[in-house]
């Protein structure tokens, strides 16, 4: 007899915080539930001082266990260098693969346009978070800080549940 275990990823919340509204501002940051099985996340950040030639991103993953505790990764990457050689950092490459095909952040610096994440759906994440690198069931927080010119300009927190 063969058993197949299925996991399901679900978005529970998203928070987009601008630390410098003169530099960048979120046009929208939302979760949309189309029906019971199809949910997606979209966000758009308007860059107000273009072009941007120096970007760093810090991503931390937390697991919810009596509060959020560090889990698996806390990585900081120079985004301009990373896009030139994506194999240079496998952890950053894996995290980037979670949203690469849904974003217009797919080239090296400079950035002279607004940055968007368009309709990142849970069906896509199901495969990445349960088959490619199996995460245990539970609640998670993908916490990211976005730095331009070594100043924290924005924070994006994505809360998910794997059941």
UniProtKB/TrEMBL annotation:
SMART domains: DM8. Pfam families: DUF1091. This is Uncharacterized protein. It comes from Drosophila suzukii (Spotted-wing drosophila fruit fly).
